């Protein structure tokens, strides 16, 4: 252990939007080297507004672990977005490295919020065009209409 190591507390007033973003969501950095914290990981918050969904993206070599603080979401993945899992408050989510995915807020009235920890100190976000999945437009229409994989 480094004799200069210490515990760092970062309050909400210092959370930083200046991190990699994906359309339809908001990421706030809390634990990162830019805060003077020597770490091999990144930590922060992730939120998607009611009835919204993120763009299609992946996180390169990073693995992601998330804890759902509030809300209900669907995570879609696969070469064409053909797989889906639903997560609610209290659930943990693991997203493997290089897995192309998108998050969908299943609520029309409440955002969903996650605590996110990534396996490298600088978040990697590779945003893909909406036509990366032929069915992405259909997914977007279903979200707007309040229908998802569970309601098909």
Layout of secondary structure:
Elements: E1 26-31, E2 42-48, E3 57-58, E4 64-70, E5 72-77, E6 83-88, E7 92-95, E8 101-105, E9 112-118, E10 126-127, H1 136-145
Antiparallel strand pairs: 1-2, 2-9, 3-10, 4-7, 4-9, 5-6, 5-8
Structure description:
This protein is mainly β and 152 residues long. The chain has one domain (18-151): Jelly Rolls. It contains one helix and ten strands; from the N terminus they run ββββββββββα. The protein has a five-stranded antiparallel sheet, with no helix packed on it. Strands 6-5-8 form a three-stranded antiparallel sheet, with no helix packed on it. Strand 5 and strand 6 (83-88) form a beta hairpin. The longest helix has 10 residues, at 136-145. The radius of gyration is 16 Å and the shape is globular. The relative contact order is 0.23. The mean pLDDT is 87.
């Amino acid at each position: 252990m480094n004799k200069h190591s210490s515990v760092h507390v970062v309050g909400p007033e210092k959370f930083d939007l200046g991190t990699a973003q994906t359309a339809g969501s908001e990421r706030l950095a809390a634990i990162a080297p830019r805060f003077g914290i020597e770490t091999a990981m990144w930590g922060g918050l992730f939120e998607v507004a009611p009835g919204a969904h993120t763009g299609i993206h992946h996180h390169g070599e990073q693995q992601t672990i998330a804890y759902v603080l509030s809300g209900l979401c669907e995570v879609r993945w696969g070469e064409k977005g053909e797989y889906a899992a639903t997560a609610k408050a209290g659930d943990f989510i693991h997203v493997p490295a290089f897995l192309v995915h998108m998050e969908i807020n299943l609520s029309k009235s409440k955002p969903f919020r996650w605590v996110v920890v990534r396996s490298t100190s600088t978040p990697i976000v590779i945003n893909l065009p909406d036509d990366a999945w032929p069915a992405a437009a259909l997914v977007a229409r279903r979200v707007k209409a309040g229908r998802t994989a569970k309601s098909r």
